[in-house]
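Input set for joint prediction.
Command: fold jointly, output tokens.
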Amino acid sequence: MDTAANLWPLLGILVVVAGFLLRTNPVLVVIAACAVTGLAAAFSPAHILESLGSAFLKTRNLPLILLLPLAAIGLLERAGLKEHAQAGIARIRSATTGRLLTVYLLVRELAAAFGLTSLGGHPNMVRPLIAPMAEAAAEARVGTLSEALRHRIRAMSAATDNVGLFFGEDVFVAFGAIVLMQTILRAEGLEVDPLHMALWGIPTAVTAFVIHAWNLRRLDRRISREHLLRERELRR
Amino acid sequence: MIAIDFFYLLVGLLFAATAVMNLRDRGNPRRFTTALFWGLYALVYLAGERLPPLAAGLLMVAMALVAGVKLVAPGRAQAVPEAARRASAARLGHRLLLPALAIPVVTMLGSTLLKDVSIDLGTFVEPLLDPKNLTLVSMGCGAIAALALACAITRATPLQGVREARRLIDAMGWAVVLPHMLAVLGLLFSEAGVGKAVAHVTTSYIAMDSRLVACAAFCIGMALFTVVMGNGFAAFPVIAGGVGIPVLVGVYHANPAVMAAIGMFSAYCGTLMTPMAANFNVVPAALLELPDKNAVIKAQLPTALPLLGANIVLLYFLM
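tokens >
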């Protein structure tokens, strides 16, 4: 094992891929992959459990971002936050789902590029505000939405938040990824200015905006198609 | 000092409340096992580092098994009828937006302005906010401020807030713990040397004798490895060390800044395509109550794939 890498732990990856393809419950897939990876690396069962346990405790800061806002968001939902957001967007005549989400994409990406990554997120922006507004903008044009279209609009709202965040934050110099890249390149003997890495990210950030905005226009076209079909059915 | 431990305690209490509320909910067909699941998770936050690693490992496996055989179910939600919500929305108007905006505003204030503020009690000086977890702690303060504002505006009690949080946690179910467990798998992967094995395979079996092939191998390798690991930060060191530095910089004299920037963005294309990045892709699907847990990934594919292609072209011409 000193010069040639031990290839057996790759079995863990195989378990993950197979598990997701077979649509097994992801939590079970993760545990199975942990067991296979650990055994393939010749760890004893006690060693595996101890590694899992200390990692489980060490990473328990991860779910905080999701969990902490829930009480406030839940109360606001109960008091009609979604309905308020929907009534607001329905009043703007020029608003379409695609345009609304494109504006959100722009704001999210620019804010993230200036380091304001907390301006957004699934629990505190997408669920209570962005997705309901995107749905309401479509309803204002089409009337009631089919379930499939409603789900597509919600999924696109979540996707827009992700795209804006990912391709904005890497343009910000003080972001963790830039620091990580600098550290790794330095370990390999390459000295790179963080500002240059941030600047060379801009062409991709712009391309990401253009491609996603185009996909949002396609969503708008799909919504109008549904509208046309609905009207034709009504005329019959 | 406001430390992260305070928020661990809060989250532990929230899970304990979720467990108790489910245990007492006769409308939940799986109330005992559901309470067990959330109770075990509460223990992780309440006991924290006092748990021996072996016990924590057993606890994680037990939680996974309970969730994996579908013994975790949502309780009966006491939803407010839509007409009442509309009336309340009309009455409260834009005031409803204030608490929602308090979270980002307080987070930003905490992580910028209050960063260097410390408490000074003569002999006892320490920073106000835990400097090692500045963003998380600031966001926690924002969440508390938002809850206080929401209670004041809607005239509800904090206990009602806990009930609402339980409703949302119930609706997400096991998806709440998936990102956490995937992070554990990621750490185990690196301990077992999975990264080294992947780097060995990619560098030994792909011939990189043309500039375009090298660019494509680098970008696609980043994306694929991220799809597997669920995290671009895990992929970057492996693929940059295996392909980026020796081949792109070493053989084709690429500008390292371009290689790094476009490499990381290629990894992010992978993040958009994988259920392993559960907190970005699977949790939102649960949060938005979508029946297809892969719906967000499907919505992202038409952006991620063309963008990966664009990255290869950009890298080829810019490096």
